[in-house]
Design a protein that fits this description.
Layout lengths: L8 H6 L2 E2 L3 H12 L7 E2 L2 H10 L15 E3 L15 E5 L5 E6 L2 E4 L4 E10 L15 H7 L5 E5 L6 H14 L2 E7 L10 H9 L8 E6 L7 H14 L4 E3 L13 E3 L4 E4 L4 E4 L8 E3 L3 H9 L11 H10 L8 E6 L6 H15 L4 E4 L1 H8 L7 H20 L3 E4 L6 H13 L3 E7 L3 H7 L4 H6 L21 E3 L6 H14 L9
Parallel strand pairs: 1-4, 8-9, 8-11, 9-10, 11-12, 16-18, 16-19, 17-18, 19-20
Antiparallel strand pairs: 2-7, 3-7, 4-5, 5-7, 6-7, 13-14, 13-15
The structure holds 3'-phosphate-adenosine-5'-phosphate sulfate and adenosine-5'-diphosphate.
Protein name: adenylyl-sulfate kinase
Organism: Stackebrandtia nassauensis (strain DSM 44728 / CIP 108903 / NRRL B-16338 / NBRC 102104 / LLR-40K-21)
EC number: 2.7.1.25
């Protein structure tokens, strides 16, 4: 499985180290555990090209997705891919603990200052923490426990409500198969549920599953349904699945050897409370399964999920993870040019929420952030990114604990705003992007701090809107242009949005 290259301690001690990005760490764990067998390495140029062109590795093995590792060029500048003792890269977990070493047989610059590091990986330490680690059995250990001839794999990337439970029972019964539930835990699921919540909700349905083995797998979605489906099939096969139930997503066997089971559309039969094939229930007695968005909507509004659709224990987990919006944490993230009105609006919203007392609220005002959180940072692209990441991190923590976090940095880059949105989602909170879209001419006309004049005169460099870019958001949840409205009206637009969406109930005066 893993290669047997020799790794003397002194080589390891001198090797550079790097913490891969989350999806690369997930790939690493799958490589090390044997879930990606026969793959035991990060791919190099020949394999990457072959996967893209033909869906196979260079040696002809079917393989759907490029499993690659990109590392900043500086980190690997001392490596020499032609010398076995000088090409070891140590990979660490986010806390800096070494978990693996790569024998970097190929180092390929890929632009943006990164190098693709390709080569076999070897485990040098255990990842010991993380919720539900006990469910992370290796493929080999899992296969050992599976004694039936047929094993029905289920990729449970969403909670299991009664229709899904009925589908699994029906398929397991038809095949006389043991059930193998694989829970992807490498990131947010398709419903935006953090992994620990997804696992808890599946465990809450355990009693209603036929005889099952439950395993948490660091499988992540890469955004290409077909290739993701193929990879899932391969991983399911590695864990011992002979069949895979295609629930909600399309899977294909893709050389994995598993057989894909297509589900039948089931509906609830109001006469006796059974879930049956749609065509077997007369229309007056049929109740269709709820869609994920209907379920989210009910939770957002604080309605319980009905017993006919969701086992009470599952409903309780989901209610806890996704409380009604009036109780859920939210990051209100205002972005816009300097002088557009972000701080003025944020302060107004803050005061209004203090007045109603309904929510705990924190304001991360620009000046305060720059003084306390980001005092050493300037306005280069990298510094601005770091500034936004810090604000997003602290705001997400506030929202994780069910508070309202108001942020008002310029946040000129779409990537930083997207990261802030993702961090809030991972904290189980909502994220509202408010674009304060006041045009540059108006901001410059206001020039409250005289900075635009200085920027025009070349006294200040890299000034947003003048000599530094502002990427206009394409995904703002609310847009407020303050050029032709009064301050109170601008504040009112944000408050109305919060009231209409259910994040606050009391309308402040
Ligand atoms: N070069 C340059 N570009 C933009 N802005 C500058 C610059 N230098 C100083 N300032 C002042 O700093 C405030 C912006 O800080 P932010 O933390 O919001 O910026 S960023 O989000 O990190 O881009 C911004 O304050 P606001 O007017 O409150 O937005 C400016 O007054
Ligand atoms: N409708 C409005 N909403 C917000 N600010 C407004 C509005 N109309 C005029 N202004 C003025 O514009 C300026 C905006 O400054 P500020 O809130 O500090 O902007 P930013 O935080 O985006 O740099 C303030 O002087 C404010 O009084």
């Amino acid at each position: 499985m893993v290669s047997d290259w020799v790794l003397p301690d002194e080589v390891l001690a001198d090797a550079p180290s790097y913490t891969p990005r989350p999806h690369e760490l997930a790939d690493l764990e799958l490589l090390l555990s044997g879930a990606y067998a026969p793959l035991n390495r990060f791919l190099g140029t020949e394999d990457v090209d072959s996967v893209a062109a033909a869906g196979t590795l260079a040696d002809g093995t079917q393989w759907p997705t490029p499993v690659t590792l990109h590392v900043p060029a500086d980190t690997v500048s001392s490596l020499d891919s032609s010398s076995p003792m000088s090409r070891v890269l140590v990979l660490t977990d986010p806390e800096g603990v070494p978990v693996a070493a790569v024998d970097a047989v190929e180092l390929t610059p890929v632009g943006d200052g990164s190098v693709r590091v390709a080569g076999p990986v070897r485990r040098i330490g255990e990842v010991l923490h993380g919720p539900f680690r006990r469910l992370r059995a290796t493929p080999a250990a899992t296969r050992e426990t599976l004694t039936t001839q047929r094993v029905l794999g289920v990729i449970a990337d969403r909670p299991l409500h009664r229709p899904q439970l009925a589908e699994i029972s029906r398929a397991a019964h038809t095949l006389a198969a043991h059930v193998l539930i694989l829970i992807p835990v490498a990131g947010l699921g398709p419903d935006g549920l953090p992994p620990a919540v997804l696992v808890r909700s599946i465990m809450a349905a355990r009693d209603r599953l036929p005889k099952s083995t439950i395993v948490a797998v660091p499988l992540s979605q890469r955004g290409d349904d077909v290739r993701d489906g193929l990879l899932s099939s391969r991983v399911a096969a590695a864990y011992g699945a002979t069949h895979l139930l295609s629930m909600g997503r399309s899977f294909a066997a893709g050389g994995s050897g598993v057989r894909i089971m297509l589900p039948r559309q089931l509906c609830y039969d109001a006469r006796d409370g059974q879930w049956r094939a749609l065509e077997d229930v007369e229309p007056p007695f049929r109740r269709q399964a709820m869609s994920p968005s209907e379920i989210s909507d009910m939770l957002d509004r604080g309605f319980g999920l009905p017993d006919w659709h969701t086992p009470p224990a599952v409903a309780a987990e989901l209610r806890r993870a996704r409380p009604p919006r009036r109780k859920r944490g939210v990051v209100v993230f205002m972005t816009g040019l300097s002088g557009s009105g972000k701080s003025t609006i944020a302060r107004g919203v803050y005061d209004a929420l203090l007045e109603t007392g309904e929510r705990t609220v924190s304001l991360f005002d620009g000046d305060v952030v720059r003084r306390l959180l980001s005092s050493e940072l300037g306005f280069s692209g990298t510094d601005r990114e770091a500034n936004i990441r810090r604000i997003a991190y602290v705001a997400s923590e506030v929202a994780h604990h069910h508070g309202v976090a108001l942020c008002c940095p310029i946040a000129p880059y779409a990537a930083g705003r997207a990261e802030a949105r993702r961090m809030a989602a991972e904290a189980g909170a909502d994220f509202i992007l408010v674009h304060v879209s006041t045009p540059l001419e108006v901001c410059e006309e206001r020039d409250r701090k005289g900075l635009y004049a200085k920027a025009r005169a070349g006294v200040i460099e890299s000034f947003t809107g003048i000599t530094d870019p502002y990427e206009v958001p394409k995904n703002a949840d609310l847009t407020v242009d303050t050029s032709e409205i009064a301050v109170d009206e601008a504040i009112g637009q944000v408050i109305d949005y919060l009231v209409d969406g259910g994040w606050i109930e009391t309308v402040p005066y």
